Amino acid sequence: MEKFQVLREEALDNLKKADHMLTITYPMIGDTRILLNVADNIFLSLTKAMSSVVFHDRLFKYIPSFNDNFEGKFLVFKDKCMRRHKIDLQYAKLMQEIKEIIMLHKQSPVEFKRKDRFVICTENYRMIAITVNMLKDYLKKTKEFISIVQLITRKNEGIFS
Questions:
Q1: 133 contacts: CB under 8 Å, gap ≥ 6
Q2: Where are the domains of the chain?
Q3: Model confidence at 155: pLDDT above 90
Q4: Alpha-carbon distance 147 to 71, whole Å?
Q5: 64/77 Cα distance (integer angstroms)
Q6: What stretch of H or E contains 139?
Q7: What is the rounded CA–CA span in Å between residue 140 and residue 36?
Q8: SS3 of 80-116
Q9: Residue range 80-134, pLDDT digits in tens
Q10: Which CATH class is domain 3-102+132-160?
């Protein structure tokens, strides 16, 4: 399998994990720390799907070489791939939003759960609350993005069999 195919399948796996944690595990256990794991899996799903498109386009020489890190792939994806495939800018904004939440969590000195929310506090006391409804919306948009990625990366798949 080509790298873009592997990444596409991994993105789908992370999406399924996030969906399962949000719809099955969280209601059963009720611990809001699970919501952070859901956000992590959604972000992994988005980034692997994005990488799949980038590696697909690189394989077919539609884009130049790029740095194989998040920033490098994100820039190429946003500047070249999104325009080429007519992908809505909302998906790039979604990736940035979830990445910011995850980075704030890693840097936060304080986090706590309040009712059905997981709250992250920054050093300057800015608070970000992760809620189930917020993650359901992220999950819905991620599913749409994965569908788009599957359409893009499966167009020429017959030549790899």
A1: none
A2: 3-102+132-160
A3: no
A4: 23
A5: 11
A6: helix 132-154
A7: 17
A8: HHHHHHCCCCHHHHHHHHHHHHHHHHHHCCEEEEECC
A9: 999 999 999 999 999 999 999 999 999 999 899 888 899 999 888 889 999 999 9
A10: mainly alpha
Whole-number Å distance between alpha carbons of 152 and 146:
10
Distance CA 108, CA 30 (A): 23
Q: What is residue 119's DSSP assignment?
A: E
> How confident is the model over 11-65, as pLDDT tens digits?
999 999 999 999 999 999 999 999 999 999 999 999 999 999 999 999 999 999 9
| CA angle 27–31–37, rounded 5-degree value | 90
Enter the tokens of residue 26: 């969280």
Question: Which DSSP string do the residues of 47-76 spell out, in sequence order?
Answer: HHHHHHHHHHHHHTTSS----SSHHHHHHH
Neighbours of 36 (CB within 10 A): 17
Q: Which pLDDT belongs to residue 161?
A: 58
- The neighbouring-strand residues paired with 111 are 120
